Amino acid sequence: MKKLVFLLTVLTIFSTLLSACAPQATPAPAPTQAAAAPTAAPAPTAVPTAVPTVAPTVAPTAAPIAITYWAFGSEGSAMADGTLWTDWYAKIFDAYQKAHPGVTVNFALKGYDASGSTLVVDTAVAAGTPPDIYFDTKFRVKKYQDAKLLEDLTPALTPADLAAYDPAVLAGAKSGNMLWSIPADGGYWNMIVNKSLFDKAGKSDLLPKGPDYTWTTEEFMKACQAINDPAHKVYCTAFFAGSTSMDSATNAWLAGFPDCKFFDAATTKYTVNSPACVEAFTFLHGIYDKGLMVPGAAGLIDDTTDPYWLDQQVAILGQGNWYDSITKKGVAAKTAAARDYIFVQFPNKPGAPVTPVGMANPDVWGVFKQTDPAKLKAILDLVQFMQQPDNATQIAIGWGKVPVRTDAKFQSTDPSVAEPLAAARKFGSYDPYFVNGVPCNYTDVRTAWADARQAFWQDKANIQSVLDAFVTRANGIVASCQ
To answer: For the segment 166-213, what is each residue's pLDDT rounded down to a tens digit?
Structure first.
């Protein structure tokens, strides 16, 4: 029955799904947004013991129920502490099944072996045999929501559960009032500063001070100009637009200009060409105009930008967690020199509130549509169990991320994790993926934005025209959802 229901829908959307299958240019399983695995921030130092949360006992089901649960990944992949994901899930599901007689969970890691795409899932969808539960990054799960293939997960959360989530993260899991996904974990984008370079130049007094490490755009520009020294191969910062990868790191700057609204969910219109957004992008282009960044942003990608940081040729970058991670790896492998660095907030426009922390792409649960009410109830019960703080925390730390739930028992002495998490809770968080409320076709919109970034990082770029062109194109894309 389930196969028949899916077949009619899938025939019309399969070509769309396949076009969206290309790997997302996001790092994995390390802390950047990678297509090969959910985006990972540096692994926290404190890892809780992987003991399953005890599932509530329920009465035996009237008939046996088999639930198919797929998580994005490859066979043999391990958690941050070396435990195989398959072993961890086996313990979790064994505890759940003992408390739920008649329910069997069939688990598999899927997708990574298909070149980091969702081809395996797409093929199953086209065949009318998708998994019941799919756990992956929000980008990839949302593709199935765009195709109207997912269930509303609102019944899977109690009022206490809802109160425990970061509102900005949960908002991005909704389409209108429909909760199409539930987040388990995420990361936070802050700025990282090579303090050794500032110390060497005698300019450390220009950097933000603890405990909050905040600064305005004016203070940032003063420090940026002071440290910039291309003659000695030191640049203040770097941007890249050669791929969609890390577009969130650029978008996180917009949080410092709170009147700039990238997207209006109420009207389902992109509004990034507003005067406030033009002001924000004019500021960013000023960094380019003054020669305060590594040249050639339009052609640079993450792989060509990383060496500038590792070789200490750039002083400040916007993907703090990622550059913390690769620095530690480089120092350990003796391919990069040790240096002191600190984490700071993205600068805010003078007079504006402290910039909230940009969120990395969360990993979420999605549930494909069901025809059997009894099975749907069992599936929602399993999702409710999995998103409980103990289980969600183990998943988050397994991926080197942080749990989304604020009631999670989680501590870390790693500043790349602890500081942005504390800042997020103090100053709030910001979704740099501007996916909140987007009705459909976000992958196409992201491609349009990548093209706009290419046009933006050019000499004498007409910022208003670049943003106008993107808004026209993006609004045309989402208009097809109406």
So the answer is: 777 788 788 888 999 999 988 788 899 999 999 999 999 999 998 899
One domain for residues 274 and 197? yes
Beta carbons of 287 and 217 less than 8 angstroms apart: no
The answer to whether the CB of 146 falls within 8 A of the CB of 178 is: no
Predicted pLDDT at 75: 80
Within 13 Å and on the Cβ side, how many CA atoms surround 338? 1
- What's the domain range around 117? 2-187+362-407
Q: What is the C-alpha to C-alpha distance for residues 193 and 201, in angstroms, rounded to an integer?
A: 14
Say whether both 252 and 322 belong to one domain.
yes
Residue 433 located in a structural domain: no
Q: Is the pLDDT of residue 438 over 90?
A: no
H or E element at residue 183: strand 182-186
How large is the C-alpha radius of gyration of the chain? 22
3-class secondary-structure state, position 23: coil
Using alpha carbons, select from 405, 472, 93, 461 the residue that is nearest to residue 271: 472
Q: For residue 273, give the CATH number of its domain.
A: 3.40.190.10
